[in-house]
Amino acid sequence: MKICVNTRFLIKDKLEGFGVFTFEILKEFCKRHPEHEFYFLFDRKPSQDFVFPGNIKPVILFPPARHPFLWLIWYEVSVYTKLKRIKPDVFISMDGMIPLRSKVKSIAVIHDIAFESFPEAVPFLVRKYYQLFFPLYARKATKIITVSEFSQKDIAEKYHLSPDKIHVVYNGHQGVFKPLDKAEISKIREEISRGYPYFLYNGSLHPRKNVSNLLKAFDLFKEKDRQNIKLVISGRRAWKTKEMERVYENMNFKDEVIFTGWLPEKKLAELTASALAFVYVS
Predict the structure, then answer these.
(1) In the chain, what's the furthest Cα-to-Cα distance?
(2) Which pLDDT band holds residue 76 (cuts at 50, 70, 90)?
(3) What is the CA angle 251-253-255, rounded to 5?
(4) Theoretical Cys-Cys bridge with 144: which of 166, 196, 265, 279, CB 3.0 to 4.6 Å?
């Protein structure tokens, strides 16, 4: 069986949500199914870390698709043309986007459609592209994969699809995330928070992640805190961060907040295992 996969989010040292999901799923999928032939479609030269040995054929398609106009070219011209040549049995797209003209069976992975409920949290051009094309992608796809029952219901209702078309595949955890002993925890805390316990938030920083309210809540918490607990925020600044920055500058306890920026997988796992609690606010 020939399987083409959209792997454009596999970028070394820049793996986030889509990238981590893509890497972990494909690593196991390809290992467990050596009888299949996989074509990984990249939009730039890939790291060899992502070209698994055995049954993988990397394909580089231009242009690098990092802008709505380039997405359109990449999917509707480059990917479409390559699928016609390869003639795969199925095309799997890990970001939900598929070439609309293609006759190849497709599986679209749509994690959520939060841009429909919170459009103000997405940059203008990206929002317009999503709102125009994602209903078309969802209807065109042979099957849809999402990560929760909520998203399954949301996609089905907003795009008028049968829930039977949408399959829920839950997120898992990476093997590197595991408990640490007390000595290791003390060492990590010394490095990150001068030895104090901390709450940890991880994720890209933009309005939909609700970080502004996290900062406000932490400020209120610190008024009664007697344990000198810190707040560690890990993740890159994505877009529309001015409101978050304004809230941070007006905090009474902003010196108790630590921004780490994006962290590699091993370091993030250490911070997670050493945290007093993990905060999920979106």
Answers:
(1) 65
(2) very high
(3) 110
(4) 166
What letters, b where the CB count within 10 A reaches 16 and e where it falls short, cover 100-122?
eebebebbbbbbbbebbeeeebb
pLDDT attached to residue 205: 84
Short-list 127, 119, 115, 124, CA closest to 154: 115
| Alpha-carbon 11 to chain mean position | 12
Position 14 pLDDT exceeds 90:
no
Please determine, for residue 91, whether its predicted confidence score (pLDDT) is greater than 80. Answer: yes
On the question of pLDDT at 239 being above 80, the answer is no
Please check whether the two domains, 2-168 and 182-278, share a CATH topology: yes
Q: Please state, in angstroms and rounded to a whole number, the distance separating the CA atoms of residues 24 and 173.
A: 9
Torsion on CA atoms 149, 26, 50, 267, rounded to nearest 10: 50
**CATH match for 182-278 among 3.40.50.720, 3.90.1150.10, 3.30.540.10, 3.40.50.2000:** 3.40.50.2000
Reduce the DSSP state of residue 93 to 3 states and report it. Answer: strand
